[in-house]
Amino acid sequence: MHAPDISVLPPMQLLAPRTARELAFNVLEAHHAGNKHIGEVFDQAVDRTTLSPSDRRLAYELICGIVRRQSTLQALLMSLVHRQMETLERPLQTIIKIGLYQIFLCQGIPQHAAVHETVELAKRANLRWGGFVNGVLRSAIQLMTENILTAPSSKALPIGHHQYRELTTDLFPSPTLTPGSYIAAAFSFPHDLVERWVGQYGVEATIRMAFWFNQVTETALRVNLLKTDRETFRQKLFAADFVAEAGDLPETIRLLSTVRISTLPGFPEGEFSVQDLSAQHAARRLNPQPGEVVLDLCAAPGSKTCHMAELMQNQGEIIAADTHGGRIRQVYENAERLGLSIIRTITIGPRGENLPSMEFDKVLADVPCSNTGVLGKRPEARWKYSPAHLDELREMQATILRTAAGKVRIGGRILYSTCSIEPLENEEIVQQFLAATSEAGGPQFRLVEEQKFMPGSPADGAYQALIERVS
Ligand SMILES: C[S@@+](CC[C@H](N)C(=O)[O-])C[C@H]1O[C@@H](n2cnc3c(N)ncnc32)[C@H](O)[C@@H]1O
């Protein structure tokens, strides 16, 4: 008889999770079953618990870490459980991974607590699982040594801050013989993606990026200068026990505490937004002025739209367009919270159908992309990468840039931006656009400047090209 296909079994859920591990289990199981973002699933599940803020934080760290480090945890699991993976129920695999993540990759959780808490979770899920999970996790501890390494090897498990934990066994492919396979398995990235990075940036830079993407990063905030000033807001955070520093741009703050954003002081009053530093450069680079008429072609959820409105002193007009009618509502909600009244939202077709017939001073084209610059912030994003998807995205990006070109006035500017570090989605799209328009007899364009932000230097990866219509 064949083993049942466990991938199609309904998710298992614990009623009323009582611990951080139980909450993590519920969210991971629900995430496996559906298509929703981890953050959304977590928000729904957490609202139904009475867990303390520190338990919620631990649950969130476990969830994000386990989704991110899937390949690493799978390699550990396979070396510990000498059974066909298909015969191991998926909820049981999830529980073991919760234990393995705590033992190998969480700082500050003693091994005995990691084992005890995970065995309790296993027993709550299924009384028969406690002994098995206990055995697997105790064997896992035997895989660890006390040694911290500073260079990769097939025994080296990357743990963060450019350090590796030495294991007692060769768990990973050799980084010397097959660097791409080592990085993919040990750091947990799709193999295709790692091979691209190794080809473009070399092994060392790829490893630096992989470390950066795998560590929990600080959060950048954008202060709403129409409501407060940066120093006053920083003092407010400080008074509420949060550590924050001034960032590069006049409105940027680096928040050095881990926190659920909506609980920060000033959030309901619209004194700030969450936005990565590299993304904050987009509106700054386009430089919209008070009184101008601006088109944001891919606006939802509206971070950059609202930043532009703030830079425009809430004077002029912004048409915030998106093809996703549901998400466009978020632009409206963000604008309302931030006290911005110059934004008008519209739903458009994929080729700009339904856009008003006028021309604009500035056009922002913040196109959908592979997200390869923000893989640290979005734990599941790396697993959505595929070369085939890249082709689809490129077609969409070129179309959106052409739509932008058709809406900008002579002397006006377009900002083409992505949160990708793939040249195919960035420089190549822009160069192809410039070549095509210079050959055609219509409007002419020039590249004013472009910038690629590499992940970790110092913030998310991104690309921005400022293009001017010259005739
Ligand atoms: C990277 S997100 C935009 C993020 C947004 N600019 C911000 O800063 O919050 C890309 C958006 O483009 C939208 N989109 C997808 N295809 C589109 C198209 N053909 N035209 C316009 N928008 C599109 C998606 O619905 C998505 O909301």
Automatic annotation (TrEMBL):
Gene Ontology biological process terms in this record: regulation of DNA-templated transcription; RNA methylation
Keyword annotations from UniProtKB, A to Z: Methyltransferase, RNA-binding, S-adenosyl-L-methionine, Transferase
Binding-site list for S-adenosyl-L-methionine: C298, A299, A300, P301, G302, S303, K304, D322, D366
InterPro entries: MeTrfase_RsmB-F_NOP2_cat, MeTrfase_RsmB-F_NOP2_dom, NusB-like_sf, NusB_RsmB_TIM44, RCMT, RsmB-like_ferredoxin, SAM-dependent_MTases_sf
PROSITE patterns linked to this entry: SAM_MT_RSMB_NOP
Xref: PANTHER family: NOL1_NOP2_SUN FAMILY PROTEIN _ ANTITERMINATION NUSB DOMAIN-CONTAINING PROTEIN, NOP2 YEAST -RELATED NOL1/NOP2/FMU SUN DOMAIN-CONTAINING
Protein name, UniProt field: Sun protein
Lineage: Bacteria, Pseudomonadati, Planctomycetota, Planctomycetia, Planctomycetales
